[in-house]
Write a structure and sequence with these properties.
alpha+beta; Aldehyde Oxidoreductase, domain 4; 4 domains; 19 helices; 25 strands
Length: 732
C-alpha cells in the first residue's frame, strides 16, 4: 500500500474517510473540493477524529503524527488500530506526518513512536469502539453488555446479524474527546497485535512501485541545487553564473546572504549549473585541529556542571582500595543516509506546501514559518518516506532550501542534495569524552564509582537550527546538542556513586541527535569500565553485573542472555594461539533506567598483526514489554546491530580547519556485507505489560560489548571509537 497514493485519495475524495456522530454535514466530493478534508478535519490530539476515520464501507484510516523512517511503525500502527477496533488489517490505511491531517505527536525520535504515539492511537480506537457499541445498542435496542465486536461489525453475543461500523457512522465525524480511561482490549484476546505481520511497505519497495520522496513530482516543478560554502562559516563574496547561462535548461539563481542555489528546468541541468557557477568565499578556519580534538573538548568553556546521580560519598574508599581510571572518547559521526536528502515545495495562493521525508513535520512547519515570516497555518508539511535516517539528518534542511527557493521564484521546486552535501552539511553527532574512576576493596567489590562527562550544553528545545536560515541570515533557532547526557547514570546498586556532566559552551559542528544519542556514548564508557573492574576483581563479567543488579527483570534478562549465548567464563575456554584471536564480550542496559532492557554478547575475531577487528556474531536478549510486531522488532534489532557495529569499527567524520573532508563513502566508510555479523535474538514476551520503545535501546550496548570482546581476545582495551586497526595496535 502506497502512503502517498492514500493521501492523494483522501484529498481527492474530500471527506469519504471523515466520520461523525454529530450533525456536521458530509464533506463534498469532487476536484473543486479536494482540499476540504485538509481544511475541515481536526488534528486535535484530544479528539478521536484527530486519529481515526471510518468510511461508509467500514474502512478505517489512522492519522499518525509519528512517521515510518524505515522502521516499520506504519505496519505496527495499523496493527494497533485493527486490533482495538476488531477489523481486518487489510481494512486499515495509515496516513503519516501531514500537518493538515495528523495530530502533532512530537518528533519521531527517542523510541517513543509505539510507546507514546501508538498508545494514543490505541486509546482513540478504544474510545471509538465504546462509542460505536453504545450507538449500536441504541440501534439494535439491546444492552451494551450483550454485544460484541468482530470484523468491523457489532453483533449480539447470542447471535444475529448486528450492524457494521459503516452503517453506524459512515461519512460522519465522531466529535468525541479521547477518553484516556476507555478500556482497551484484553491482551489474551489479541489476534493481530503480537503477531509477526510482514511490513506493509515491503512489496512496493521490492517491486519498485513504492513512491519515495525522491520520486515525487508536481506539475510545473523546477529543479534546484544548493551551492554550499567553501568553509563552515565562510561568507559569499562574489558569484558569476556566466557559465550557467550557456546551459539550455538553466533558469537562474537564488542568492540570499550566504545562501546560494541554482535553478533549472530539469535535474541534470541543475547539476551542471551547480558545477559551472563560479563563487568566491571568505577564508574561515574555525574548526579545531582534528589531531588534538580531545584536548579541544576538554579545554572548551564549561557553562555549568551538574550532578546527574549521587549516592554515598565517592571519597570514602577504604585504605588499601585498588583504584582504576580510564578515559573513553566517542568520535563525531554523520548520519550518512544512503540516499541524499530531497524535498519539494510550492507556494500557491499565499499558502506554502512542503513535501519532505522529515521526521518532524509539525516542528518543521513551525521552523519554516519562522524562517520565512509566515503564519504557521499558512504552511503545510507533508511526509513522504525518503532515505532511512537514524535521527535528524539533512531532510529538514533540504525542505527549508526548497521552501525558500519556492517563495523567491514563486514556482514549485524540487531540491535534492548531492553526496558531498549530505556528508558535508548534515548535522553531526557531537564528540563525547568521559573520565571514569572506580575503587575496589580487597574482595574485589566496587566501593566507589565516579564518572565525568564532557558534552555540549543542554538544549532549550528540540529544534535543530535550519542550515538554510543560518546561511540566508533569516530567523532560526539555536542548535540542539542531542541529549548526550542520557544514561550516564548506571543501573547497578553501588554504595558510593557520583555521575557528573560538564556542559560545554560549544561543539565543532552543528549538532543533532543520531540514533541512541548519549545513551550510546555513555553506555560505551559505563559498560566498558564495569568490565575493567570485573577483570581487576578476577570475576566473570556476568557474575559481576549480577552482583550489583537488584532489578528482577534485569536479572532474568541476563540469565536468558547467558543461556542464549552459551556463555562460559574465560578460564574455562580453550587457550588460543595463532595470528587471529577470538573473544566474547557482554554488555547490559536498562534504557534511561526506566524502560527497555537489553543485553548482548558479541563474538569477535582480531587479526593480531593488522589490527583489524571483525564482529562475527551478536546475541541479543531484549525485553520491551508488550510486543506489537515480533517481525518488525527483530528487523529493528538486527538493523541496530549492523549499523552500530559499523559506527563502532569504522565511522568517523574527518575534517580540516574549515570543513568536513570525509564527503563520500571512501573517506567515510561503513560496514560492508562480508563483515555483517550474524544476529541471534531472544525476545522476552510480556503481552500484559505496557509496550516500550525498541528503536534505540539495543544500539546502546554494541560498542562496549565489542570492546569487551576485544579485551577477552587480546587483553587490549579499546577506549576510543571507532576501533580502527591503528588504535588496536597502539592499545595496551
Amino acid at each position: 500500500m502506497n502512503n502517498s497514493l492514500s493521501r492523494r485519495s483522501l484529498l481527492k475524495s474530500g471527506g469519504a474517510l471523515v466520520v461523525s456522530f454529530a450533525l456536521a454535514p458530509r464533506l463534498a466530493k469532487g476536484a473543486a473540493k479536494k482540499e476540504a478534508a485538509a481544511t475541515q478535519k481536526t488534528v486535535a490530539p484530544d479528539q478521536v477524529d484527530g486519529f481515526l476515520a471510518i468510511d461508509s464501507k467500514g474502512k478505517v484510516t489512522v492519522f499518525s503524527g509519528k512517521v515510518d523512517l524505515g522502521t516499520g511503525i506504519r505496519t505496527a500502527m495499523a496493527q494497533i488500530a485493527a486490533e482495538e477496533l476488531s477489523v481486518p488489517l487489510s481494512d486499515v490505511t495509515v496516513i503519516q506526518g501531514d500537518t493538515a491531517l495528523t495530530p502533532d505527536q512530537g518528533v519521531t525520535f527517542g523510541s517513543l513512536s509505539i510507546q507514546n504515539g501508538g498508545m494514543q492511537i490505541r486509546q482513540a480506537a478504544a474510545t471509538a469502539r465504546q462509542a460505536l457499541i453504545a450507538q449500536a445498542a441504541t440501534k439494535l435496542s439491546a444492552d451494551k453488555e450483550s454485544l460484541t465486536v468482530a470484523q468491523g461489525r457489532i453483533v449480539p453475543k447470542a447471535g444475529g446479524k448486528g450492524v457494521s461500523y459503516g452503517q453506524l457512522i459512515g461519512g460522519k465525524q465522531f466529535d468525541l474527546k479521547l477518553d484516556p480511561k476507555a478500556p482497551t482490549k484484553d491482551p489474551k484476546d489479541f489476534t493481530i497485535v503480537g503477531k509477526p505481520i510482514r511490513r506493509l511497505d515491503i512489496p512496493g519497495k521490492v517491486t519498485g512501485t513504492f513512491e519515495y520522496m525522491h520520486d515525487f513530482r508536481i506539475a510545473g516543478m523546477q529543479h534546484a541545487r544548493v551551492v554550499h560554502p567553501a568553509g563552515i562559516k565562510a561568507e559569499l563574496q562574489s558569484v558569476d553564473d556566466a557559465g550557467c547561462r550557456e546551459i539550455p535548461g538553466y533558469r537562474g539563481l537564488v542568492r540570499k546572504a550566504n545562501f546560494l542555489a541554482v535553478v533549472a528546468r530539469d535535474e541534470w541541468s541543475a547539476i551542471k549549473a551547480a558545477r559551472a557557477i563560479k563563487t568566491a568565499w571568505s577564508d574561515w578556519a574555525g574548526l579545531p585541529d582534528q589531531a588534538s580534538l580531545w584536548d579541544a573538548v576538554r579545554s572548551t568553556k564549561v557553562v555549568s556542571t551538574e550532578e546527574l546521580q549521587k549516592a554515598g560519598d565517592v571519597a570514602k574508599a577504604p585504605p588499601g582500595a585498588k583504584t582504576l581510571k580510564a578515559t573513553y572518547d566517542f568520535a563525531i559521526h554523520t548520519h550518512g543516509s544512503i540516499g541524499p536528502s530531497c524535498a519539494v515545495a510550492e507556494m500557491k495562493d499565499g499558502k506554502l506546501t512542503v513535501w519532505s521525508a522529515s521526521q518532524q513535520t509539525h516542528l518543521l512547519r513551525k521552523q519554516i514559518a519562522t524562517m520565512l515570516s509566515l503564519k504557521p497555518e499558512d504552511v503545510r508539511c507533508v511526509y513522504l518516506e525518503g532515505a532511512g535516517c537514524y535521527g535528524r539528518n539533512g531532510h529538514e534542511d533540504a525542505a527549508a532550501d526548497a521552501a525558500l527557493i519556492a517563495v523567491e521564484t514563486k514556482k514549485p521546486v524540487r531540491v535534492q542534495w548531492m553526496r558531498q552535501d549530505e556528508h558535508g552539511w548534515d548535522p553531526k553527532g557531537p564528540p563525547t569524552l568521559l573520565d571514569m574512576q572506580g575503587s575496589l576493596d580487597e574482595s574485589g567489590n566496587i566501593v566507589t564509582w565516579d564518572a565525568v562527562l564532557f558534552a555540549p550544553n543542554k538544549p532549550k528545545d528540540v529544534s535543530v537550527k535550519l542550515l538554510t536560515g543560518e546561511l540566508a541570515e533569516l530567523a532560526h533557532e539555536d542548535s540542539h546538542p542531542g541529549n548526550v547526557h542520557q544514561d550516564l547514570a548506571i543501573p547497578y546498586q553501588i554504595a558510593n556513586i557520583r555521575t557528573t556532566v560538564h556542559w560545554l559552551s560549544e561543539t565543532p559542528f552543528r549538532p543533532s541527535w543520531i540514533r541512541t544519542p548519549g545513551r550510546l556514548q555513555n553506555t560505551f564508557a559505563n559498560e566498558s569500565f564495569i568490565d575493567e573492574l570485573a577483570a581487576a576483581a578476577s570475576v566473570d563479567p556476568f557474575e559481576y553485573r549480577l552482583r550489583y543488579l537488584k532489578d528482577p527483570r534485569g536479572i532474568e534478562l541476563l540469565e536468558r542472555l547467558r543461556k542464549l549465548s552459551n556463555w562460559t567464563p574465560r578460564a574455562k575456554r580453550e587457550a588460543q594461539d595463532g595470528d587471529v584471536a577470538h573473544g566474547r564480550g557482554m554488555s547490559y542496559i536498562r534504557y534511561e533506567l526506566v524502560r527497555t532492557y537489553v543485553g548482548v554478547v558479541a563474538e569477535v575475531e582480531v587479526e593480531k598483526k593488522s589490527g583489524k577487528i571483525r564482529a562475527r556474531k551478536i546475541y541479543v536478549a531484549h525485553d520491551c514489554g508488550q510486543i506489537i510486531n515480533p517481525d518488525g522488532l527483530r528487523n529493528q534489532i538486527e538493523g541496530n546491530m549492523v549499523q552500530t557495529t559499523s559506527r563502532t569499527l569504522l565511522e568517523e567524520v574527518k575534517f580540516d580547519r574549515s570543513k568536513v573532508t570525509s564527503v563520500d563513502w571512501a573517506s567515510y566508510p561503513i560496514l560492508r556485507h562480508p563483515d555483517v555479523p550474524e544476529v541471534v535474538i531472544d525476545l522476552v514476551e510480556r503481552p500484559a505489560e505496557k509496550p516500550w520503545g525498541a528503536g534505540e535501546p539495543s544500539a546502546a550496548v554494541v560498542p562496549s560489548a565489542i570492546a569487551n570482546a576485544v579485551f577477552d581476545a587480546t587483553g587490549k582495551r579499546m577506549r576510543s571509537v571507532p576501533f580502527t586497526p591503528e588504535k588496536f595496535l597502539a592499545a595496551t
